Amino acid sequence: MTGKTWIIYGAYGYTGVLVADEALRRGHTPVLAGRSADKLVPLAERLGLDHVAIDLEDEDDLAKTVAGFDLVFHAAGPFIHTSAPMVRACLKGDTNYVDITGEVAVFEQNLSYDQQARQKGIAVMSGVGFDVIPSDCMAKYVADRVVDPTQLELAIASTGIPSAGTIKTVLEHIPKGILVRRNGRLVRYPPGKEARRIRFVDRERTVLPASWGDLATAYRTTGIPNITTFMAFPERAASFMRWVAPLSQNLLAIGPIRRLLQKSIEKIVHGPDEHTRQTARSYLWARAANEKGDECQVWLETLEGYHFTAVAGVRCVERIFAERPQGVLTPAVAFGADFVLEIPGTKRYDQLNTL
Ligand SMILES: NC(=O)c1ccc[n+]([C@@H]2O[C@H](COP(=O)([O-])OP(=O)(O)OC[C@H]3O[C@@H](n4cnc5c(N)ncnc54)[C@H](OP(=O)(O)O)[C@@H]3O)[C@@H](O)[C@H]2O)c1
Question: Across the chain, what does the average pLDDT equal?
Answer without folding.
Answer: 93
